[in-house]
Structure formats: C-alpha cells, structure tokens
Amino acid sequence: MVERTPWLNILTHVILFTGLAILVVPIYLVFVAASQTLQDVMAIPAKLLPGDQLFPNIAAAWHEAEFDTKFLNTLILATGVVVGKIVLAALTAFGIVFFDHRLRMPIFWAVFITLMLPLEVRIVPTYAVAANALSPFQTILDMLGITGLVNALTGFEIALNWNLLNSYTGLIMPLVATATGTFLYRQFFLTIPDELVEAAKMDGAGPLRFLREILIPLSVTNMAALATIMFVVGWNQYLWPLLIITDPAYGVAAVELSRLVPNMNTTGGDIPNWHWAMAGTLIVMLPPVAVVILMQRWFVRGLINTDK
Q1: What would the pLDDT profile of 250-293 be if each residue is shown by its tens digit?
Q2: Best exposed site among 20, 38, 148, 269 by fewest CB in 10 Å?
Q3: Is 247 left (phi over 0), alpha (psi -120 to 50) or beta?
C-alpha cells in the first residue's frame, strides 16, 4: 500500500533532489572547469559558469593523452569482456540448469563463491598466471616427474611459457570469468517452463538446438542488461591494465586519464593543466554514458524480466 501525504511527498522530493545534486554537481563542476582557461580554473573565488574554451581544451586533452589509440584499446577491452562474459555465462548456466548431474550444485556454488573474490582480491595470483599462463601445467608436469623423465631420455627440457602481459588477451581474460553473468542467466533459465523443454524434445531438438533456437532468443533482454553492465565495467578498468600494461601501444583510456592529472613530477612545479584534465574526464565519460542511455530500455527489461 502506497501512503500519500503532503509531508511525505515533500520529504520524498527533498531526498530525490539531494541525491540528484550529489550526482550532478561534481559532473557540472568538471564541465565548467573543462570549458574555462587555466587562469579561470585557478581563480579565487571559483567561477561557476561555463567558459568558451570547451572544444579547444578537449582537442588539447585528446592530443596530450593520445586518446585515439587508447580509445581503440579500451573499446577492444570492453567489447571482449562483453562478448566473452555473455558466451561463457550462458554456457555455464545452461549446463547447471538443464543437465541433471550430481555436480551441478557444487559447480554452481563454486562459481557463486567467486563473487566474494573480485579481481582486486586475487590480483597477485592472477598476475602470476598472466605472466605465464602455462605455469600450472608446468608445475603438474614437474610434480609427476614427466619433465625430468623427458629430459633424461631425450635431453629436451620441457619449459611451457605463455606470457599474457602487454596483450589484449591478458587484458580481457581475467575479467571474463566472473559469477555475475552466470547467476543472472541461471535465475532466468530457472523460469523456463518444463512444458517448453518437453515440447522442444518432442520436436527433436537436441541441447545445442534448444540453446540456439529457444533459450538465446528468450534471453535477449538478459544479454542486453549484462552487456550494458559489463561494457561499463570493462571501459572503466584501471587497476588491472595499470598492472599488466607497460607498453604504451596497449594503454587504455582510464589509465591515460590518470596521467593527464598533473603532479609535481610531471609539471616540474608549474601550475597543473587542470582544464585539460577535466576535458579528458568528459571525453572518457561519454562512451559508457552513451551506451547506458541507448540500452536503457533493454537494460531495465533484462533486470526485471518483464518479457517472460
């Protein structure tokens, strides 16, 4: 039951406008600083009205941070994370929900527990694996004595090595295997009626045909919601690219944006170019905002599952 009273309506609107101000005011200050000259940004008291230097500042920030290649790298990273997570999560949830085997629940809970282990928590072992993705197999061969046996018989030393540092594969793979998408798909697949599954069997549909022709078309809104979330997550990645990327050719926008923020080491004590840094912030912020706006309808449908 929704209670409607004048005081409650006023209080509700005060809370809403307070939340809106908390969200919008910082973005407005960034926009104002990005549209002013450096002297206006450093003026006391601060000027709170936009200036006329927005596009020159954006051009300077774009050139200074070399955003052309950084945006392409970030787009590859975000797209790879979206595609990889949608495919992997759909297949994992499909196996958990529609295949009756004893390990289905242990596998689900094993996947679910990884929600409590974000990349920041497991970043050291993840980096070790990225430095040599085949090191676990090398360890197994060493423990079984196969490496020593082959070396003794043939003189050949097995040394498995696959370095993922400074590569798109290394950027994308650790971000693909998380439990969020699997849990979202599982909850949707559980709502599929048994009659539909039985009807597909009677029509001669095998598991892959059932997945391709029935489940995937029904999961379009879920895919859109997951793709929206994962694109924003992938685009805003900072810590992982900062850790594994030392080649500027593979740099991403968020990391390069941090390099636009000046400090004593980069300016040598001169006044920092805050107007360029704010202009760069606007540039980096635009793609995820555009994706969320364009996908808003499917994003909401995917989360509340109104199409079921």
Answers
A1: 989 988 887 777 666 665 666 778 888 899 999 999 999 999 99
A2: 269
A3: beta
